[in-house]
Amino acid sequence: MTDLATAPTADILRHQLADALVAAGAITSPDVERAVRTVPREVFAPPGTSLADAYADDVVITKRRADGQPTSSVSAPWLQARMIEQAGVGPGSRVLEVGSGGYNAALLAEVVGPTGAVTSVDIDLDVIGWARRGLDAAGYPQVATVVGDGEHGHLPGAPYDAIIVTVETADIPPAWREQLAPTGVLVAPVRMRGLTRSVAFTRDGTGDSAGSGDGLVARSLLMCGFVPMQGQGSIPEQHLDLTGGGGDGGDGVVVLRVDDDTTTVDPGALAEALRGPRSDVWSGITLPGNTSFETLLLWLTGQPVPYGRLFVDRDRAKVHFDGLLAPFANVSPAFLTADSLAYLVLRKLDSTVPGAQPPGESRWEFGAHGFGPDATLVATMLCDAVRAWDRHAPDPHIAVHPASAATDAASVAASDGAVRLLVPRRHATIVVSWSAPALTSAATA
Question: Which residues constitute the signal peptide according to the record (predicted)?
Fold first, then answer.
């Protein structure tokens, strides 16, 4: 039991959090560091949240749906700090926050200072009410809070030097670009074929002069996760249960999420395939333990094959699938055909495997587990994509074009042979390209 007389105070925990974020490189700006050391995060946490939880570098859920899924949260401090730095705001900046909670708006108020302005908009009246009470209690009455659909921004406060979106969005609505100052920055967690990245956009790729076009170009991106947007901007993924049902409590053990209209699969056939034999293919591409491979995940989304993400309850999968279904994480990228799939796996090498490291130096190899009639073909395709990524180690280029210019954007992007991924949405087409050559598709839906 904690001795209350010696328990750390909120001030101590606040400074410890800031120290940790600076040490980890999540904070590099003195203005953001000062904000994290100043704003009382516990004020924005739900009643009953301990100080330790309020100042953990983790998400604090503030509202859930009836089924338990979160609809609003206070994001992890490291991510909030990084996104504010992505936006490049400072004293005097005018900022719109889409998706409220209070804490992030208070951090922004500290960063922009008395000569700046912060407006926070959210579609949920409860969320705005909670944010308003927290901001007043923490001493930030100057932050404007607005109930509204974030898809439309907030025109009365425009133009903004930065718009920071704190909900997952699959589209870039016109209001965000139109309400952005000529040299402003839009930071948004954009979902591209199921994968979410916080992307900092400027007009026509310029950050220091007025952009003249209707497009946006990314200048930085960051792996992240957020609750999805509600309202008119909501674009849900397909959730296909591949468990096979049977009334034995196994439903939901395996769910395939598909985020584009061009991928067509037969859920029943895939569910049947997962109960059949498994084909293992290994890529020969290895990496040391604790090495990030987030660029690979984005690279895989752009390959010219039907694509999804496999969500697996691994503990229950051991029972329902006799141990055959063994992804390295709860979610794995998957290549698909109508009746077959292969998902990315990792295996730890040891001294009996060629290419293994000396004892004490762990090394992991990428591979694929395939199921269904085309199991080996699709698993080989996935491993080919891993090998292509390893050869080129490409950095992606991300641009956004209005939907009205989608055809031109596609043709121009494809003209140099570099385009990998087009994400057509209602308002915009997101174009992700690499300089590396494309993988030739041998698997079709």
Answer: none
* φ/ψ bin of 330: left (φ > 0), alpha (ψ from -120 to 50), beta (otherwise): alpha
Per the structure, the count of domains in the chain is 2
The answer as to whether 112 is a domain residue is yes
The answer to whether residue 421 is domain-embedded is: no
Tell me, yes or no, whether 69 and 205 share the same domain.
Answer: yes
CA angle, residues 322, 326, 332, in degrees to nearest 5: 140
Contact 334, 308 (CB under 8 A): yes
Place of tokens 């037969």: 266
Catalytic member of 29, 50, 73, 75: 75
Is 431 inside a domain boundary?
no
Query: Between β-strands 238-241 and 195-203, what pairing exists: parallel, antiparallel or unpaired?
Result: unpaired
For the entire predicted model, the pTM comes to 0.88
The residue ranges of DSSP E strands in 48-133, in sequence order, are: 60-64, 70-74, 94-98, 117-122
Residue pointed to by tokens 């042979």: 417
For the chain, what percentages of helix, strand and coil (3-state, to nearest 5) are there?
A: 30, 30, 40
- Does some domain include residue 99? yes
Same domain, 94 and 156: yes
- Kindly state whether residues 127 and 210 are assigned to the same domain: yes
Percent of the chain with pLDDT over 90: 62
CB 123 within 8 A of CB 148: yes
* CA 48/CA 442 separation, integer angstroms: 55
Domain that holds residue 374: 238-397
- Residue 75 annotated as catalytic: yes
Residue 253 backbone phi and psi in degrees, to 5: -65, -40
Tell me the pLDDT band of 340, cut-offs 50, 70 and 90.
Answer: very high
Q: CA of 113: how far to CAs of 34, 109, 186, in Å?
A: 11, 6, 20
Both 58 and 93 in one domain: the answer is: yes
**Measured torsion, CA atoms of residues 15, 19, 25, 29, in degrees rounded to the nearest 10:** 50
Burial-class residue 53 by CB neighbours within 10 Å (0-12, 13-18, 19+).
middle
Contact between 158 and 184 (Cβ < 8 Å): no
pLDDT band at 444, cuts 50/70/90? Answer: very low
Same domain, 310 and 352: yes
Contact 269, 404 (CB under 8 A): no
Q: Is the domain of 286 the same as that of 177?
A: no
Q: What is the token pair recorded at 156?
A: 């009365």
Find the farthest-apart pair of alpha carbons in the chain and give their distance in angstroms, rounded. Answer: 68
What's the one-letter identity of residue 391?
Answer: R
Tell me which residue has tokens 């039907």: 306
Instruction: Please state, in angstroms and rounded to a whole number, the distance separating the CA atoms of residues 434 and 398.
Output: 9
